[in-house]
């Protein structure tokens, strides 16, 4: 068997998600995942530390991408607008790389263990965004609130996009969530 298997990480991730959707997350083992992917446990261990990791591969990259996008946003933007630009930009990029996102969402909704990890992912993204906003001069408490609210809007827009991926683009869904949020806060 060759030492390098093409798209091994993606095959393992997809196998974990598909099997969990079929059987339930708690009823799937790492061995089941590796067998479905046609790979070994050793290969699995190269990419993931445990079964949950397959569902959250790239989590650190998402947080870093959001933070970087906020840093790179036009200097004239205030903290909220910089957060909105960053989250919209990264969201548009993210939806291009999520072929199993709907199945993943279904599995996460049925597993408290995965829901906890999903909250950790959101906290990492919010933390990275808040740090970027502080770097742009926003006071720490405000940066934290704006980042948390922004991540909630990001996730709401992503859910709307998953509900109808053939409909409006992610950025349109995100802009609609931000507009609804702004209207609610103004009333």
From TrEMBL:
Name of a matching Pfam family: TetR_N
Domain of life where this protein originates: Bacteria
UniProt DNA-binding residue ranges: 29-48
Keyword Membrane in record: no
Domain HTH tetR-type: 6-66
Keyword annotations of the record: DNA-binding, Transcription, Transcription regulation
Gene3D superfamilies for this protein: Tetracycline Repressor, domain 2 (1.10.357.10)
InterPro entries, A to Z: Homeodomain-like_sf, HTH-type_TetR-like_transc_reg, HTH_TetR
Name under which the protein is recorded: TetR family transcriptional regulator
């Amino acid at each position: 068997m060759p030492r390098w298997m093409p798209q091994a990480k993606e095959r393992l991730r997809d196998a974990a998600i598909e099997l969990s959707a079929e059987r339930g997350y708690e009823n799937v083992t790492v061995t089941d995942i590796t067998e479905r992917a046609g790979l070994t446990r050793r290969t699995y261990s190269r990419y993931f530390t445990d079964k949950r990791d397959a569902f959250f591969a790239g989590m650190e990259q998402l947080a870093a991408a959001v933070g970087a996008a906020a840093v790179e946003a036009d200097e004239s933007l205030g903290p909220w607008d910089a957060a909105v630009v960053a989250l919209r930009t990264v969201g548009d990029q993210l939806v291009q790389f999520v072929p199993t996102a709907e199945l993943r969402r279904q599995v996460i909704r049925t597993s408290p263990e995965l829901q906890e990890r999903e909250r950790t992912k959101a906290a990492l993204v919010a933390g990275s965004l808040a740090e970027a906003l502080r770097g742009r001069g926003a006071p720490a408490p405000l940066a934290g609130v704006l980042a948390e609210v922004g991540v909630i809007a990001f996730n709401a827009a992503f859910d709307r996009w998953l509900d109808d991926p053939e409909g409006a683009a992610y950025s349109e869904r995100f802009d609609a969530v931000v507009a609804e949020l702004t209207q609610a806060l103004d009333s």
